[in-house]
Design a protein that fits this description.
- It comes from Planococcus citreus.
- Residues 3-237 form the ABC transporter domain.
- Its EC number is 7.6.2.9.
- The protein is α/β, with parallel strands linked by helices.
- Helices cover 36% and strands 23% of the residues.
- The strands form two sheets. It has a six-stranded mixed sheet, sandwiched between helices. Strands 2-1-4-5 form a four-stranded antiparallel sheet, with helices on one face.
- A hairpin with a 2-residue loop joins β4 (58-63) and β5 (66-69).
- It has a domain at 3-81 and 155-242: Rossmann fold (3-Layer(aba) Sandwich), CATH 3.40.50.300.
Length: 248
């Protein structure tokens, strides 16, 4: 497996219930995973642990045969090779689109940075926008720039936190499909968290549903629909059984 998350648990200070309880997941190279759950389910905690913003109580994370954390190891965030796309995109307002994308390309020659920047602009279809500033872009365009910046250093893994929360409903439909195409074209392994089932079904290869810090479901979007259908049928049957029989 390209990414192996093994038996990871975490609790926030002064809380009794764990935010994440023995979470385990294997991810293939280029796979798009959705972490689906309500507020407080633990989905954002997973991103923070993977990114290195929190230290787990126990467990192990391995990416491409390199251990990022376990009982003896804790690699700092900047050394993990993980990209992050935040809810508010976190673009630098004083920098152009080009400068934002090149920001994380340290250690590269100027010509190589520019070439990589142009590759990213082509990938997200914003070739004509390199000299614009974030305030001159729409919400969808800002998101594309944030994704391009995250992909530019060629990370092992990209994490996306509620990627559509700042977009209006009409724009969300188009951006969902565009984002999946971008990730697949770049062959980037990615995990995104969302509370919206539609996001998960359109974008993900597999969906992981969390409930109270524990894995409640994992499978393909079609598997999830079958599960919901079976649960609905079972609930309907239980309701019918509970109703009194009326003899006429």
């Amino acid at each position: 497996m390209f990414v192996a998350i093994e038996d990871v648990s975490f609790s926030y200070p002064n809380t009794q219930a764990p935010a994440l309880d023995r979470f385990t997941l294997d991810i293939k190279k280029g796979e798009v995973i959705s972490i689906l759950g309500r507020s407080g389910s633990g989905k954002s905690t997973i991103l923070r642990l993977l990114a290195g913003l929190e230290r787990p109580k126990n467990g192990r994370l391995v990416i491409q045969d390199e251990t990022l954390f376990d009982d003896k190891t804790f690699l700092q965030p900047e050394k993990r090779g993980i990209g992050m796309v935040f809810q508010d995109y976190a673009l630098f307002p004083h920098m152009t689109v080009a400068a934002n994308i090149m920001f994380g390309l340290s250690g590269m020659k100027k010509a190589d940075k520019k070439r990589r920047m142009h590759e990213m602009l082509e990938l997200v279809e914003l070739e004509e926008y390199e000299k614009r500033y974030p305030h001159q872009l729409s919400g969808g365009q800002q998101q594309r720039v944030a994704i391009a910046r995250a992909i530019a250093p060629n990370p092992h893994l990209i994490l996306l936190d509620e990627p559509f929360s700042n977009l209006d409903a009409e724009l969300q439909g188009k951006i969902r499909k565009d984002l999946r195409e971008i990730l697949k074209k770049a062959n980037i392994t990615s995990i995104f968290v969302t509370h919206d089932e539609k996001d998960a079904h359109i974008l993900a290869d597999r969906i992981v549903k969390l409930k109270d810090g524990k894995m409640d479901f994992v499978g393909r979007p079609c598997d999830m629909l079958d599960t919901f259908r079976q649960e609905a049928i079972a609930e309907s049957e239980e309701v019918l059984k509970s109703q009194p029989v009326v003899n006429v």
